[in-house]
Amino acid sequence: MSADYQKISQDGLWTNNVALVQLLGLCPLLAVTGTFINGLGLGLATLLTLILSNASVSAIRHWVRPEIRIPVFVLIIASIVTIIEMLMHAWVPGLYNILGIFIPLIVTNCSIIARAESFAAKNPVLPSVIDGFMMGAGFLLVLVVLGGLRELIGFGTLLDHSYLMFGETARSWTLSFADGYRGFLLAVLPPGAFIGLGLLIAGKNYIELRKTKHQTVKLQPVIENSSTA
Amino acid sequence: MQFNSATSSPHMMRDDGISQLMLQLLFALTPGAIAMFYFFGWGVVFNLIVAISTALIAEAAVLRLRQREIKNTLLDLSAVVTACLLALALPPLAPWWLTLVATLFAILLGKHLYGGLGFNPFNPAMVGYVVVMISFPREMTFWLLPSTINPAALGFIDSFNLTFFSQLPAAMSWDSISSATLLDGIKNHLSQGHLLSSIDTNQQLGNLFGKLAGNGWEWINLCYLAGGLWLFKNRIIDWRIPLGLISSLSLLSLLFYLIDSEQYLSPSTHLLSGGIMLAAFFIATDPVSASTTPRGRIIFGAGIGVFIYIIRQWGGYPDGIAFAVLLMNMAAPLIDYYTVPAAFGKRDQS
Predict the structure, then answer these.
(1) Rounded-to-integer distance, Cα A19 and Cα A142, Å
(2) Buried b / exposed e across B242-263, counting CB within 10 Å, b at 16+?
(3) Does the first or last residue of chain B, that is N or C, have fewer Cβ atoms within 10 Å of its Cβ?
């Protein structure tokens, strides 16, 4: 069983990463990763949504008829996102204002309903929770890396505005790397998000390619099966 | 007539390859480049040096990474042409890193990410230009007065220090060296509610005007025009794109000039300001990213002219050649699709 969890984790974090491989949820990914903290905020909200929605969908999977499962999933996800939105409004109002429409839009993040449909609806609660956590963590990782890169190149800082999330004590957390750096605006503008994501995907593919080069290539016979078409 | 081999068209080929073509392009660029050097000083030369060396190194590095042949590809000179077009478009006082960033983006993102020469949908030089234009708006205003009317023209040493070390000559400030270009100045003038006829009362702007257009700029543009006509005579570029661009820009500017000459610049000023001739003959005619059908080329050129006028007159930037070229690059496949020439013997259905 533990090997199973290992596979789930590896899928979520790397081989089937939501952002880098499935290319799901790109709209918020590209829109809010202007800074590290924005990425972290939205990433955590999405992570929490994924865990909760996977858990609930998995828990009720025996009672939901397949004909109506999609509306039921959507209702569950929408309620969870609404709760998270209200929580963020109450506890991190600054971040809530910056992320704006992209918090309620977590509902429409394809990766959430995709996990509910393809994993949680067919598996017990615990694996579903772990799957949600790992998928969310993979997404969070990409958001944070992309946000960090764009902030670093765009403004020359890291962790700027972290007080929005961690309170007043975090005001001094901002790391500034180059004094007098006037910033590279392109990185913070929308084209920077597209270029950055493209380079991240290219980097992942490059690492994969190098890994497979070291292994001997095993050719699998292609099975033509007309019944599955 | 005997066919030796079954090759695809075109069957009649010039015996010169890409590098000959590029050499002729570079040759045609020289009058304009010399004029720019005359009017704007050593900064132009430094821009060219930085851009060309960056382009060659970047291209060699990418080719190595892609495991392609390096020497022959570098010798086709296409990277050098891209670098020259870019360097001539950048402001003469641009710091070295600005030119470096622009060239890197042009060669790496604009050209090689799409597969190298022949595969890039956008004009690489303009990609690089737009990147620095939206990223470093302050540095992109580092133009200076043409040497003919500049009391404080910079010498070789001063320009060198400025370009490579951002060091201003003693007892000089940015404001005393740099100057708005004509298009920039007029945009400001109009946005403050002044009329064009009151330009002579504005000391600085009045100076910037020459006989036909911007002081100095008119000669630079005429030199590019001469180089372009030479290219046309040698059948290196097609006449349709420059003609489309120039005629659409003239018609539009003439129309608005006739309606209200207090608010809209005359066609001659439009045509001989900024980089219009450089764009019309050298940039828009890039055979890779432009439209390829005969009718399509006219539409392509005309579209660029229209966009240039719109951006100049109502946009946020003083000049919009780079944006106009990229927008029409994007439209080129669509234009080609709708303007496929009728095959010989068929009646044109459209």
Answers:
(1) 7
(2) bbbbbebbbebbeebbeeeeee
(3) N
Q: Which residue has the tokens 């890779």?
A: B288
Q: What letter does residue B283 receive in the DSSP assignment?
A: I
Q: Which two tokens mark B309?
A: 């006028």
Q: 3-class SS at B250?
A: helix
Residue A175, domain member (yes or no): yes
Q: Looking at per-residue confidence, does B82 or B16 come out higher?
A: B82
Tens of pLDDT, residues B160-188:
888 888 877 777 777 777 777 888 888 87
pLDDT beyond 70 at B236: yes
Q: Which residues contact A154 (CB under 8 A, 6 or more apart)?
A: A34, A183, A184, A185, A186, A187, A188, A192
Q: Does B109 touch chain A (CB under 8 A)?
A: yes
- Mutating which of A185, A197, A201, A206 best tests the B interface, going by the most B Cβ atoms within 10 A? A185
Residue A85, in any domain of the structure: yes
In a domain, A6, yes or no: yes
Low-confidence ranges of chain A (pLDDT < 70): 1-3, 178-180, 215-229
Separation CA A158–CA A153 (nearest Å): 10
* A189 interaction partners in chain B (CB closer than 8 Å): 134
Interface touch A185/B134, C-beta < 8 Å: yes
**CA nearest B269: which of B201, B188, B196?**
B196
Q: How many CA atoms lie within 13 A of B207 on its CB side?
A: 13
- A83 interfacial to chain B (CB closer than 8 Å): no
pTM to 2 decimal places: 0.85
Measured CA angle at B285 (ends B284, B291), to 5 deg: 90
Domain ranges of chain B: 17-179, 182-336
**Torsions phi, psi for A157 (to 5 deg):** -125, 170
Q: What domain range includes position A96?
A: 2-214
Taking CB atoms and an 8 Å cutoff, what residues of chain A touch B136? Answer: 182, 184-185
